[in-house]
Amino acid sequence: MGRINVGVIGTGWIGEIRAKVCAAHPLVESLHLAEIDRGKLERVARETRARTATADYRELLRRKDIDAVFVCTTPEDTHYPITRDCLLARKHTLLEKPIGLELKEADELMALAREGELKFTIGYTQRFNPKYAYVKKCVVDGTLGRPVTALVSRNVSRSIGHKIGGRIRLSPAVMEATHDVDFILWCLEPLRPTRVYAQSVYRIMEQAHGVPDCTWIMVTMEDGTAFTIGAGWALPPGYPHFSTATIEFVATEGALLIDDTHRDMILNTMQKGMVLPLSTMPGEQVGHVYQGPMQAETIHFIEAVALDRAVLVTPAEARQVMEVTLAADLSAERNEPVKLPLL
Ligand SMILES: NC(=O)c1ccc[n+]([C@@H]2O[C@H](COP(=O)([O-])OP(=O)(O)OC[C@H]3O[C@@H](n4cnc5c(N)ncnc54)[C@H](O)[C@@H]3O)[C@@H](O)[C@H]2O)c1
Question: Which residues of the chain have a pLDDT value below 50?
């Protein structure tokens, strides 16, 4: 296949980034948008020079010439029905995480993609962050030896907690830790997780949205390797602006310590005081360059479809991540460890 025609469904924060990367890519022949918010649709269509723009995504899917679609809608209960429609319409699909709300949704989407011989992947964007890819590389090439343990502690601004909590009752495990669970499971593959223990704390977000402020998750792998992911969304709005993460990966022959706190740039203005710019997880366009991993991830999917290459994140891996995060919520609720696979 040569140049491709691409659709983006949902042009909010993430869909707009996807659409703009597609619009600038030489392998994209035309861009087609679907968004129920008319104002957003018109603005993003204008800025990306989209060939078509509609409020009804089914109209986009009826176009036979569209090869690939990005599903970037919220709330997250739209992911499964819209993605099912994309796969039934025989479109290669990148779906933002999570792959579904229940494992049976993930199973059905995986089966549809398999039967249709379609590329289907989930937006685990941090795999395209060079710092994270470096950990994977050092595991694969033997630099670190056999993994012993890992830790990812991530906190994001309260504004993100309010945005997510305000639209759907999903936990920090399912919505935030999911990126880091995917990252560590990717580094440890082909080992499978067998046990999950988690604790959640309720202080701030419970009142407004009924969700915890943070969840700490401990995962044990089949060979006894154990790792911990902490995910919270209760940081005050002004600091660290969006996202801060500290990573430790410890193995028999070495260790990697990663600072992903975004404290290397400080902007101080009379109007807003001190903020840490360029501290979001997907990144953003800065004039003529893109800072962060989402541009590379979007291009990877365009190239996978146009040049018939394999996708980096398989749906089976995304399903495994979902199983761990669901088990984490279950464990925190029951106050006891949960064995995998979930029955
Ligand atoms: N990979 C990452 O780093 C990353 C970061 C943030 C969010 N996400 C994921 O990306 C997804 C989008 O997040 P966001 O922050 O852009 O959300 P958002 O709320 O800003 O945008 C979602 C858009 O979908 C639109 N929409 C809803 N139903 C629709 C429909 N039926 N047809 C067309 N449009 C529809 C909404 O109007 C909205 O504009 C979420 O599922 C989230 O989990 C991923």
Answer: none
Write out the CATH class of domain 127-286+319-339: alpha beta
Mention every residue, 6+ apart, whose C-beta is less than 8 A from residue 171. 200, 211, 212, 215, 325, 328, 329
Query: What pLDDT does 135 receive?
Result: 98
- Does residue 74's CB lie within 6 angstroms of at least one atom of ligand 1? yes
For ligand 1, atom 15, which residue shows the shortest CA distance? 13
Tens of pLDDT, residues 118-152: 999 999 999 999 999 999 999 999 999 999 999 99
Cα torsion through 79, 85, 89, 93, rounded to 10? 10
**Domain ranges, ordered by start, for the chain:** 4-118, 127-286+319-339
**Which DSSP state fits 98?**
P
Find the 148 Cα to ligand 1 centroid distance in Å: 36
Query: What is the pTM assigned to this prediction?
Result: 0.97
